[in-house]
Design a protein that fits this description.
Elements (H helix, E strand, L loop, with lengths): L1 E3 L6 E3 L7 H9 L1 H7 L10 E7 L2 E7 L3 H14 L10 H10 L8 H24 L4 E9 L5 E10 L5 E10 L6 H15 L5 E6 L3 H16 L11 E3 L1 H14 L6 H11 L2 H14 L15 H13 L1 H10 L9 H24 L10 H15 L5 H18 L4 H8 L7 H10 L5 H21 L2 H14 L11 H9 L9 H7 L7 H4 L4 H7 L7 H9 L6 H4 L18 H18 L16
Parallel strand pairs: 5-8, 8-9
Antiparallel strand pairs: 1-2, 3-4, 5-6, 6-7
């Protein structure tokens, strides 16, 4: 009887019930067996030689396969790019990994999930340590319901790091039990803040305009006030999402003029319902050699930006519709010349709103100094449109002005103070725009409120700075004639006083900043101007005002950062995520955001925006 080695296939003598010492001796010496044990911590390991290329030079180095490091990078890949766990078990994924390194050991999806949860705990502790060194944190929050009918609340923290760089981190993506009342939202946010140890660092919270959010803010504000941890005196604690307000305003306006663009909408719908009709339409476009590359888009009535996209594309193909009518007698919705004129007016208006929305909803969210100028553009456009005699323009304008006054009838202090802290604007933009935004008998009150709030916030920063207290006491001593000798003056001193502008010794930084005049960057630099970089460069000159500026400018005006957790193209997460347990979903969403921020990776939306789909 023979025994065959499973590793080298060598035949060895063997008798049933006989000795096996020679078989064990063979296994110890079997070379193929030794090779299979490398990397399994069960036998001798052999290092491999590899080539490292640094700046074009090849260097011979020693490579040692690290199974733990491979597992760690695998977790990061799946989390950052939101791959489903089941992919790790795919046959060709395993083949691909083994083609990179034959020592790769496949793992199960359950193992990958456990690795993800371990890394989430580790990354959360690291982020906690980082947030411990931050003085003020602003929050944004939004709600979403998954296709399992599980309600989630996303809470995002915004802050400035030591390098004056804006940072955001999703802190929680946790389930919220119905009903989603204001008290439930407030309690959930409080629990999250306590868990992170940042309950005393919250300066503002940005939410949309749901009534339940108003109650949640009131409860949170009372809690912070009771603990004497309400920053800025609560003046700017609640920030309403400007993007949400703008969307509500435009939607209300468009409901008044649906009849104006009805023929265009029905025409696009008729063409897109049939591939043959659409093909015939596109053939006419080619024959006319139109320069446009845009295809017809059917709007979603509840999304004004899709209506804008529909009108923009239809207007570029305006000459095609009449020619198509000659080839299809069943087509009954050909827009008249008047229809096209009115559509052009609506499109022109929506173009302005679309440009403003792009500023409001920037993925790399803008600083708060940029918003007031955009709001002024919207108000100016509404004022200009209100003098139009056409009925459809009047109806649309009246409806939108009502919504504008409802939410922006009172001054948005974060937006206004942010503009003042932009050295290109200072108080000039306030003085110029407020008379155009607010009624003639009310704009001065808002201007005074901005200036008073500016002084109030500045004094709060002075009160917490011990260096200011000591310098103020020193200045008081020097200016007191009973405690200090009067300085002698000579002819030069008298000449300087006569021929120069003297800055009083007790003049505050905010007065110095406002009296200096506006900063004028070059034409090429104006649009890309970074107010934070300016304050960083002038932080020695304005030691205390610069601290205030970095905190105010970092306050988010929209909830876009939290909404993007659901999806940039819509409020829908990947199908497989909604089937996971809520704690797993939270770990994947939060850690994915942290790792993308750390490595500078941008995640493309998984859901195409319906209004941008081509036919």
């Amino acid at each position: 009887m023979k025994a065959r080695c499973n590793h080298c296939k060598h035949n060895l003598a063997y008798k049933k019930g006989g000795a096996t010492t020679h078989l064990k001796r063979h296994l110890k010496l079997c070379t193929p067996r030794k090779a299979t044990l490398v990397g399994k911590d069960k036998g001798p390991k052999q290092s491999l030689l590899s080539f490292d290329v640094t700046e074009g030079d090849e260097m011979l180095s020693i490579f040692k396969y690290d199974k733990g490091k491979v597992r760690e990078e695998l977790v990061k890949m799946f989390v950052v790019h939101e791959y489903p766990f089941r992919m790790v078990e795919h046959e060709f994924f395993t083949k691909f990994c083994r083609s990179l390194n034959p020592k790769y050991e496949p793992i199960k999806r359950q193992t990958l999930k456990l690795d993800c949860m371990k890394m989430y705990i580790s990354e959360k502790e690291s982020l906690k340590l980082a947030l411990a060194g931050i003085n003020k944190i602003s929050l944004t929050s939004d709600l979403w319901t998954s296709n399992q009918s599980i309600g989630y609340m996303c809470l995002t923290g915004h802050f400035m790091d030591s390098e004056w760089k804006l940072q955001k981190r999703i802190l929680n993506f946790c389930p919220l039990e119905p009903p989603h009342t204001g008290l439930a939202i407030a309690d959930s946010i409080s629990e999250c803040l306590i868990d992170w140890g940042i309950e005393d660092k919250i300066s503002t919270i940005t939410l949309d305009n749901a009534s339940s959010n108003d109650l949640a803010v009131r409860v949170l504000k009372e809690n912070f006030e009771a603990k004497e941890k309400l920053h800025f005196g609560g003046k700017i604690f609640h920030v309403r999402c400007c993007a949400h307000i703008l969307n509500l305003m435009v939607q209300d306006g468009l409901t008044e003029i649906r009849d104006v663009i009805e023929n265009i909408r029905e025409s696009v719908k008729y063409l897109k319902l049939s591939p043959s009709r659409l093909y015939k339409f596109n053939e006419i476009v080619k024959s006319l050699k139109l320069s446009t590359s845009k295809r017809l888009i059917l709007d979603v009535p509840t999304r004004w930006n899709s209506t804008y996209a529909m009108l923009e594309c239809a207007l570029e193909n305006k000459s095609v519709f009449s020619r198509y009518k000659e080839r299809d007698y069943n087509y009954k919705w050909l827009p008249s010349d008047e229809d096209w004129k009115r559509a052009a007016e609506v499109s022109k208006f929506l173009e302005v709103i679309n440009d403003v929305t792009k500023v409001f909803s920037g993925r790399k969210y803008p600083t708060s100094n940029l918003f007031l100028r955009q709001i002024w553009k919207v108000r100016k456009m509404l004022n200009d449109m209100s003098t139009d005699n056409r009925d459809f323009v009047k109806r649309m304008t009246l409806k939108m002005k009502e919504k504008f006054d409802k939410y922006w009838g009172e001054c948005n202090l974060v937006m206004a103070i942010g503009a003042v802290l932009d050295p290109r604007y200072k108080m000039k933009l306030i003085l110029y725009s407020f008379p155009k935004i607010y009624p003639a008998d009310d704009f001065q009150r808002h201007i005074d409120d901005v200036r008073e709030s500016l002084e109030f916030l500045y004094k709060e920063y002075l009160s917490v700075d011990s260096q200011i207290n000591s310098s103020m006491s020193s200045a008081t001593y020097d200016s007191n004639p009973s405690q200090a000798k009067k300085q002698k003056t000579d002819d030069f001193d008298d000449w300087v006083i006569t021929n120069s502008d003297i800055i009083p010794g007790n003049k505050s930084e905010i007065d110095m900043y406002l009296d200096e005049g506006v900063y004028k960057p070059g034409n090429e630099e104006y649009e890309d101007f970074d107010a934070l970089n300016w304050w960083k460069a002038n932080s020695l000159k304005f030691r205390h005002l610069s601290k205030m500026a970095r905190d105010i400018l970092s306050i988010p005006i929209t909830t876009v950062a939290s909404e993007f957790a659901f999806s940039a193209g819509g409020r829908v997460l990947d199908q497989y995520r909604s089937s996971l347990k809520p704690e797993t979903v939270q770990a994947l969403i939060c850690m994915g955001d942290w790792l993308r921020q750390d490595f500078g990776v941008e995640l493309a939306s998984n859901v195409e925006n319906e209004c941008m789909q081509e036919g």
